[in-house]
C-alpha cells in the first residue's frame, strides 16, 4: 500500500475550535480563529476587484471564512466547533459538515482519526442578499495546468472572461504566470497569507490535506461578485468524484472539493445567501481526463509553459522546482494521458525527461491503473480505468515498444470503458448553455 497509512494516535485532540471574527476592509479579508487557547489569523488581499464591504459580498466572505478555518481546525482536530455569531443557513450547514467529514477525509485517514464525533454549535440566523450580475461575464480560476488551460480555451468566445489567480505571500508562481500570460486575458488576483504558526508547524499539530479547492472556489465567487461577474468557471473533471478508497464506512477522496457533490453543496450554499445571480459550475464536469488531454494537445502555444507538477508550487520559494520533477505521480499521469495524442519526441521536449520510460516509475504506474495497490495515489489524477485506457493506447504504439514494462502492465489492467467512450461526455453537468461554443 502506498503512502502513510493509519497508525497509533499519539497526539492529543483539542477541545474547541472557535470562529472568532471576520474582518472586511475594502480589498482585504481577515479570518480570526482560536484552537483552545491558540489564536490564528489568515489574510486575503484582492487585486482588480471592487469593494468587498457590500452586504452580498460579505455574505460570501462568511462562507469562505468557514471553509478557510479548516486549515487551522486540522491542527488540533477539535471535538467541538463553535461558529460564534457567524450567520449560517441550512445549505451552508450541510456544506460545512461535509467539508469536515469528507473534505478532511484523507486527513482523518492518514491520522487514524474519526471526525464523526465532532459537534458543531453556534451560528446566527442568515439573511439573504439577492444580487443581479451579468451572466456573460465570467471568472475562471486558473492554476496553470492542462485543466484550466482547456477550460479557458474551450469556453464560448462570446463570454467576457477573466482569470482568477491565487498566490501565496511568498510570491507568485512563475509557471502559472507564464501560462496565464499566453491566454492574453485580464487577471484578477488574491494573495493568501496563512498564519505563520501553521506554516511553521508544531510537534503537537496534526497535519494533512484540507479542501483547498473549495476555499479557492469561494474566493473566486467573492472576486466575481465584487467585479460584477455572474459566473465562476471551475475546471474539475468527471473523475474528480471518484474516491480513493473506503474507510470506516466513508469514501475517502483526495479530490473531494473538486467533486460533483462538493460543487452542488457550494452552489446551494451560495444560492441560499445571494439568490441566483452567480453561477458556479465546472466546465469539465462531464469530461474525462483523456478528453482534456486531447484538447490540450491541440493548444501548442501552452506546451512549453504549462506545469502540473506540484513541486513547482511549493509555498517555500527555495523549494520550488523550475521544471517538471519527472518523479511524482502527477508528472507520470500527465505524461500518460498526453502520450496518446503527442509524439514521444514532443513529450520529451515538454518534460525534459521520460517518466513513462523510467523503470523506477513502474510501481507508480501500476498504482495509477489500479494493479496491486489498495487505492489510487492521493493526488489529482484520473481514475484507474482512465489511466488503463491511456496505457493500452500507449503500449500499442511502436514509439514505446522498447519499454517492456508498459506493455506488461497494460496486459494486467482491465479498463471498464473504451478509448472512444472516454472522448464522449461522462455523466451530468451544471454548465449553462451560454458557456458552450
Brief synopsis:
This protein has 437 residues and is an alpha/beta fold. The chain contains 16 helices and twelve strands. It has a ten-stranded mixed sheet, with helices on both faces. A two-stranded antiparallel sheet has the order 10-11.
Description:
The longest helix is centred in the middle third of the chain and has 15 residues, at 212-226. The mean pLDDT is 93. β2 (28-35) and β3 (38-47) form a beta hairpin. α14 (384-395) crosses α15 (404-412). A ten-stranded mixed beta sheet has the order 5-4-1-2-3-8-7-6-9-12, with helices on both faces. The protein has a two-stranded antiparallel sheet with strand order 10-11. It is globular and about 65 Å long. The chain has helices spanning 55-68, 70-73, 90-103, 105-111, 146-154, 174-183, 196-200, 212-226, 260-274, 289-297, 329-338, 344-351, 362-368, 384-395, 404-412, 419-422; strands at residues 16-24, 28-35, 38-47, 80-82, 119-121, 134-141, 160-168, 187-193, 229-234, 245-247, 250-252, 279-282. The chain has 16 helices and twelve strands.
Strand and helix layout:
Layout: E1 16-24, E2 28-35, E3 38-47, H1 55-68, H2 70-73, E4 80-82, H3 90-103, H4 105-111, E5 119-121, E6 134-141, H5 146-154, E7 160-168, H6 174-183, E8 187-193, H7 196-200, H8 212-226, E9 229-234, E10 245-247, E11 250-252, H9 260-274, E12 279-282, H10 289-297, H11 329-338, H12 344-351, H13 362-368, H14 384-395, H15 404-412, H16 419-422
Parallel strand pairs: 1-4, 4-5, 6-7, 6-9, 7-8, 9-12
Antiparallel strand pairs: 1-2, 2-3, 3-8, 10-11
Helix pairs in contact: 1-8, 1-9, 3-4, 3-9, 5-10, 11-14, 14-15
Amino acid at each position: 500500500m502506498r503512502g502513510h497509512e493509519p497508525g497509533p494516535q499519539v497526539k492529543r485532540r483539542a477541545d474547541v475550535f472557535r470562529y472568532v471574527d471576520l474582518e472586511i476592509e475594502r480589498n482585504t479579508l481577515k479570518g480570526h480563529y482560536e484552537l483552545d487557547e491558540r489564536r490564528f489569523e489568515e489574510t486575503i488581499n484582492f487585486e482588480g476587484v471592487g469593494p468587498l464591504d457590500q452586504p452580498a459580498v460579505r455574505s460570501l466572505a462568511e462562507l469562505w471564512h468557514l471553509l478557510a478555518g479548516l486549515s487551522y481546525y486540522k491542527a488540533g482536530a477539535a471535538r467541538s466547533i463553535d461558529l460564534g455569531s457567524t450567520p449560517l443557513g441550512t445549505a451552508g450547514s450541510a456544506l460545512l459538515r461535509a467539508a469536515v467529514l469528507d473534505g478532511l477525509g484523507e486527513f482523518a485517514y492518514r491520522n487514524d482519526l474519526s471526525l464523526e464525533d465532532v459537534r458543531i454549535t453556534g451560528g446566527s440566523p442568515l439573511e439573504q442578499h439577492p444580487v443581479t450580475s451579468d451572466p456573460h461575464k465570467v471568472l475562471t480560476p486558473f492554476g496553470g495546468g492542462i485543466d484550466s488551460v482547456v477550460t479557458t480555451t474551450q469556453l464560448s468566445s462570446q463570454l467576457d472572461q477573466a482569470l482568477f489567480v491565487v498566490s501565496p505571500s511568498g510570491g507568485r508562481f512563475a509557471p502559472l504566470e507564464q501560462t496565464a500570460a499566453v491566454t492574453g486575458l485580464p487577471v484578477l488576483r488574491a494573495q493568501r497569507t496563512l498564519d505563520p504558526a501553521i506554516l511553521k508547524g508544531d510537534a503537537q499539530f496534526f497535519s494533512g490535506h484540507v479542501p483547498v479547492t473549495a476555499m479557492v472556489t469561494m474566493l473566486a465567487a467573492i472576486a466575481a461578485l465584487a467585479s460584477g461577474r455572474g459566473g465562476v468557471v471551475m475546471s474539475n473533471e468527471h473523475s474528480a468524484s471518484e474516491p480513493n478508497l473506503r474507510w470506516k464506512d466513508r469514501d475517502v477522496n483526495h479530490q473531494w472539493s473538486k467533486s460533483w457533490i462538493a460543487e452542488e453543496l457550494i452552489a446551494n450554499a451560495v444560492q441560499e445567501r445571494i439568490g441566483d445571480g452567480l453561477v458556479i459550475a465546472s466546465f469539465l464536469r462531464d469530461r474525462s481526463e483523456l478528453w482534456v488531454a486531447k484538447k490540450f494537445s491541440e493548444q501548442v502555444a501552452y506546451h512549453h509553459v504549462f506545469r502540473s507538477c506540484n513541486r513547482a508550487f511549493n509555498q517555500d520559494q527555495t523549494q520550488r522546482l523550475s521544471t517538471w520533477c519527472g518523479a511524482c505521480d502527477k508528472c507520470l499521469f500527465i505524461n500518460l494521458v498526453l502520450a496518446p495524442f503527442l509524439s514521444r519526441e514532443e513529450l520529451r521536449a515538454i518534460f525534459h525527461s521520460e517518466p513513462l520510460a523510467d523503470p523506477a516509475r513502474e510501481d507508480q504506474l501500476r498504482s495509477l491503473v489500479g494493479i496491486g495497490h489498495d487505492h489510487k495515489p492521493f493526488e489529482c489524477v484520473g481514475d484507474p480505468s482512465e489511466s488503463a485506457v491511456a496505457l493500452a493506447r500507449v503500449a500499442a504504439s511502436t514509439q514505446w515498444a522498447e519499454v517492456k514494462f508498459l506493455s506488461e502492465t497494460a496486459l494486467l489492467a482491465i479498463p471498464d470503458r473504451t478509448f472512444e467512450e472516454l472522448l464522449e461526455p461522462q455523466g451530468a453537468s451544471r454548465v449553462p448553455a451560454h458557456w458552450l461554443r
